[in-house]
């Protein structure tokens, strides 16, 4: 059966749920609105997972208005008008400029040519993968992968590796896993992290700032990265003898000197990071007026100011940032609209009039009453990481927070800020299957990685992530956040 026929079947099934589910008599504790929301949720999940995220996202928001679950003005304000969507848009633009001026590639090559990387073959591999993780912490994980992958393939050619060899398979698969880990290290440009954080703010009024989350994310990510290296070192056990003595200094020599555009862009990016640090950590240690003013700006405004500067600052007669190019090529609009629809749908499911949250609390609370918070977090993290390897990461982050939040509140012994952070990170740890994320699909499509090996070693990394996130990450998040 061709793809168009499969899509038609999925579309028909999805509409059947959306249109017929409300006709089913509501169980005790639910209403017709509850059944409408359930049917819409199931139908949209089918479309998002099997058809696409583009037009189904508009359908999602339209159906919510048609059913009267939320007014159109509320849909736009909680979706496309949400602060999370605005922040992602401007940061994607800034990230695009950093890539265009060559700063991102410069960072990538520095990681594999520094003194530590030259100490041994294993040191080179570790620093190469660590570099991918680090860069993915500050930009799209797909973009980070596409910076490192051509460099890796150049190295394979120079060392005469062939497709099917174990060393290049380890490195390419490691790149996919490393950028996945990096995507959970910070909320910068990563909607998966921002979705549960935004839902937490809307439902409880509790907020998570960028720096505080990043401390939790980096510590947890570094431990998971160390676990990946141990898996490779003692279970995969590649023969790195061909890499012994390999000189990568020519990669650094091939880089042109930093030009004025790159220097200005890099300095402005560092200034943005510094402002975020001041906002979250040092606002009370500075002149009160300055600290209050900077904190009031939020996360997106400093990026907007930098974009304005880059568009106005001309070098050799041309602005550093081409605004139209950054908006059209740097911003993944389909993904942003998808994330907006996810926020709207999640907000709908938690509305008091819809009644689903109260229903879950009433039915599930007796089952989890007295349950140890560590066990609860382990269950949520495990289910979320397993699910995210077979479905949309953003959807997993939304669904698991929407379901677990009212239950956790009813339990009374769960740190809600830490829970949102753990779910955001867990939904990012998709390492085991090609459909799980775009980077893993790209990795599988290179021909360097066998899908069975991806499932085996990516799965081991996912299991390690479950344990580390539950027993190390959650306590760290609870202490810091």
UniProtKB/TrEMBL annotation:
Biological process GO terms, please?
Answer: carboxylic acid transmembrane transport
GO MF annotations, alphabetized: organic anion transmembrane transporter activity
Its record classes its membrane topology as:
Multi-pass membrane protein
Tell me where it resides. Membrane
Q: Tell me where the transmembrane regions lie.
A: 7-26, 38-67, 79-102, 122-149, 170-198, 210-235, 262-279, 285-310, 331-351, 371-392, 399-432, 457-480
- Name of one Pfam family that matches: Na_sulph_symp
Q: Does the keyword Cell cycle apply?
A: no
Q: Does the keyword NAD apply?
A: no
Superkingdom, according to UniProt? Bacteria
GO terms for CC? plasma membrane
Q: Which InterPro entries match?
A: SLC13A/DASS
Q: Which UniProt keywords apply?
A: Membrane, Transmembrane, Transmembrane helix
Q: Which family does it belong to?
A: Belongs to the SLC13A/DASS transporter (TC 2.A.47) family. NADC subfamily.
- Name used for this protein in its record: Sodium-dependent dicarboxylate transporter SdcS
The species this protein was found in: Hominifimenecus microfluidus
| Organism phylogeny | Bacteria, Bacillati, Bacillota, Clostridia, Lachnospirales
């Amino acid at each position: 059966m061709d793809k168009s026929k499969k899509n038609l079947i999925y579309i028909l099934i999805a509409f059947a749920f959306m249109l017929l589910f409300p006709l089913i008599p509501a169980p005790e504790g639910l209403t017709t609105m509850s059944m409408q929301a359930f049917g819409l949720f199931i139908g949209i999940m089918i479309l998002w997972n099997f058809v696409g995220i583009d037009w189904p996202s508009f359908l999602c928001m339209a159906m919510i208005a048609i059913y009267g679950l939320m007014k159109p003005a509320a849909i736009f304000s909680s979706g496309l008008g949400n602060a999370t969507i605005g922040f992602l848009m401007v940061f994607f633009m800034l990230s695009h400029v950093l890539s265009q001026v060559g700063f991102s590639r410069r960072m990538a090559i520095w990681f594999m040519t520094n003194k530590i990387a030259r100490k041994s073959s294993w040191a080179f591999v570790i620093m190469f993968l660590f570099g991918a993780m680090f860069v993915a912490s500050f930009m799209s994980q797909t973009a980070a992968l596409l910076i490192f992958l051509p460099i890796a393939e150049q190295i394979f050619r120079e060392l005469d590796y062939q497709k099917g060899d174990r060393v290049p398979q380890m490195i390419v698969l490691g790149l996919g896993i490393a950028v996945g880990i990096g995507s959970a290290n910070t909320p910068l440009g990563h909607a998966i992290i921002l979705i549960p954080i935004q839902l937490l703010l809307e439902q409880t009024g509790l907020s998570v700032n960028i720096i505080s989350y990043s401390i939790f994310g980096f510590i947890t990510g570094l431990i998971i990265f160390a676990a990946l290296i141990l898996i490779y070192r003692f279970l995969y056990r590649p023969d790195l003898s061909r890499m012994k003595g390999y000189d990568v200094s020519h990669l650094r020599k091939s880089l042109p000197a930093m030009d004025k555009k790159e220097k200005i862009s890099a300095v402005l990016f560092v200034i943005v990071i510094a402002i975020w640090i001041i906002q979250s950590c040092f606002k009370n240690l500075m002149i009160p007026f300055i600290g209050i003013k900077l904190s009031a700006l939020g996360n997106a405004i400093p990026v907007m100011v930098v974009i304005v500067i880059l568009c106005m600052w001309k070098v050799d007669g041309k602005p550093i940032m081409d605004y139209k190019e950054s908006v059209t090529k740097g911003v993944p609009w389909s993904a942003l609209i998808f994330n907006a629809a996810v926020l709207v749908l999640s907000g709908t499911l938690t509305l008091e009039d819809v009644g689903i949250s109260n229903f879950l609390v009433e039915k599930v609370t007796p089952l989890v009453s007295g349950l140890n918070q560590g066990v609860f977090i382990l269950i949520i993290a495990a289910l979320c990481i397993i699910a995210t390897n077979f479905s949309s990461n953003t959807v997993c982050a939304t669904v698991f927070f929407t379901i677990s939040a009212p239950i956790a509140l009813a339990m009374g012994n769960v740190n809600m800020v830490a829970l949102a952070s753990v779910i955001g990170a867990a939904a990012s740890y998709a390492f085991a299957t090609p459909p799980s994320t775009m980077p893993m699909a790209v990795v599988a499509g290179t021909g360097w990685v066998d899908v069975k090996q991806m499932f085996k070693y990516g799965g081991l990394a996912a299991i390690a992530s479950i344990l580390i996130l539950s027993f190390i990450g959650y306590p760290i998040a609870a202490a810091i956040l």
